[in-house]
Amino acid sequence: MERNELAxxxxxxxxxxxxxxxxxxxxxRRRTPGLRRFEVAQLAGxxxxxxxxxxxxxxxxxxxxMLTALARALRLTIDERDHLFRLAGHHAPPRxxxxxxxxxxxxxxxxxxxxxxxxxxxxxxxxxxxxxxxxALLGEQAHFHGLARSCTYRWFTDPELRGRHPAEDHExxxxxxxxxxxxxLAVRPADPMARKLVGALRAEFAExxxxxxxxxxxxxxxxxxxxxxxxxxxxxxxxxxxxQDQRLVVYSPAPGSAAVSQLELLAVLGxxxxxxxxxxxxxxxxxxxxxxx
Length: 293
Prior knowledge:
14 helices
């Protein structure tokens, strides 16, 4: 690990980013160019103290998961991401199917949807990035590990996730998840994570898998039981990249529906939480033990 080189690289890449580039409120006048440290930390899902130590050349070696989050937060190109990994003492991720690096262009599209819940996910349903509105609607998705990073895996194994949707919607959602997973496995039959997912879940969805239905979900209707706004019904549209391995997912309300005002309320709640994270000392209580590994 080249601590000083890593620190300099992080500082210089942070200085190149403006708040409007990443969907962060500009706030007052800035004494130095670029994002503030706490803004990068928030985008990457780490504590501000941890990120500050990395920029000062005195932090511990970041994990692969943490480096991936930093690459997205700093909007690095794939070459810059590989350089970041090497400076931190890791091998650069292989550039083959299933690469989880999100391009700047796709992140700009995500940042350009501040009023709608939107996220970027892999074709194995791993959330790679999400905007504050998706945070408010769905909760943070970055703290899961292993197979649990996939929403498909959690749908079949986590009662809490299933409980966020009305019981009468469960069968439809299960079929959509299985059909989509089979479509991905057909494209990348040797993909290790896809094969592990199927192996781990076969007992959970044996009947559905046996139907051999294949369908990539491109649009749908989602009903979500939210603790603050109640049952909210949204349209669900998916835009895939040219390689089909990453997707921009956007949730939108039907014009004139109750969901319009529900999303407006969620936007306010999300802004209040952002303000709390900047001013409440409890928000700084996260330690390195809370960071992704």
